[in-house]
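Record passed on underneath.
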Amino acid sequence: MKTRTHIRFLLGGQERRLDSVDTTLTVLDYLRDHARRTGTKEGCAEGDCGACTVVVVRPEGDSLRYQAINACIQLLATLDGSQLLTVEDLAGADGAMHAVQEAMVAENASQCGFCTPGFVMSLYALHQQTTAEPSLQEINDCFAGNLCRCTGYGPIIAAARRAIAQDDETNSEVTDVLARLQALADTRTLAVTGPDGSRFFAPATVDDLAALLAAHPAATILAGATDVGLWITKDLQRPDPIIYLGRVAGLGQVTETASALEIGAMATYSDAMAAIAAHYPDFGELIRRIGSRQIRNAGTIGGNVANGSPIGDTPPALIVAGATVTLRKGKTQRSMPLDEFFIAYGQQDRAPDEIVETITLPKPDPATRFACYKISKRFDQDISAVCGGFALRMAGQKIEAARIAFGGMAATPKRAAAAEAALTGQNWTEATLDRAVSALETDYSPIGDHRAGAAYRMTVAQNLLRKFFVETSDPTAKTRLVGHASAAHG
């Protein structure tokens, strides 16, 4: 295995080469404590407030992809081969403000200014990726992960509309950055050793990944860092070694076949959302509500599955859609229905040196009625109290097959076997619905915690099944309160 022991990336227009870096150093701490770029702020240190928002630029074919991320929970070593942009990089060579900054000033979109650099960078990412005038929903999505406590969002939204109309980046600048980033790409394994002896590995090939997992079966496998980052910033853990999947060729792809979507383990929510929404509009809307855009740009569906959290958002929808998970150990692969992957709390059917390689999501059967719902205290950017998925294959009014799964109701994402049995073979009527609603009390014994009480969770689960009945029985029923699509959630 050929290795490289230093991290290489562009900080603005300057190439940085870092040796012997603390393997748990966050991008935020690097910027403020090492690069002395203090425009990027620390607000929450857990990816919620957006004060630390920066933009990461990576090649995408013959162009560049600009994505806003939370610097506070992103590990610096994961930026190898990319460009990192902060608010200090936006000014022109003559010191003139960028169009985004000018718009924020013109619309009086800042007061105390603490949150402003984060808003500027989120808007800059939107500016770079958007040519048409964005809708209010697109602007709201852009800023959902940026919190302001004193300005009010009206002037900030006005600044977004003003800024998008201006284009001040030349093709030559894009071409230059693209060439420099392509020159940084290689197939060597990044093998960083920190001053304390801790290790960070980022292989570029599946074979090198397999070799590392075999040599370090107890390693922490890192995908988007939206969970591991919190272990570091909040629990002060120092995982060692870390094996990062982000450089492995092919793991970030979303491939559409005639019958399914093949979602690679490193495909982010942002990567997969449009493809999933095209076939499962409800599922696409659910993904839109997972964290903020910064979180969706980093977090992965594979990581959400591999983590095995009972309140993970994607497993209930994936399970009822009949998704399968493919695991890889060395050159050996095995697949299973996703609902069989979750064994018990914190336990999945995965060996220590085995990874989730792909999630296969079948395209929906035209005879199947599908819906999924997320209930949380806040509509956007909040962890689920209950998340439910429902799928019925119908022959007229008769239910040929039923699949129901909930998160937040048990120690794992779990199917409702008794409720499914009460539905299968029956006509889809209120009497059948009542029997299935009662059966949910056999399927689940939820616990109470700071997100929701046990009785509340059961009531919500039962009412979501009733909501599904109303929506599938009367398509004109108005049951969705908020959202930007016909499948928007309320």
User: Anything to note?
Assistant: The CA atoms of residues 220 and 242 lie 5 Å apart.
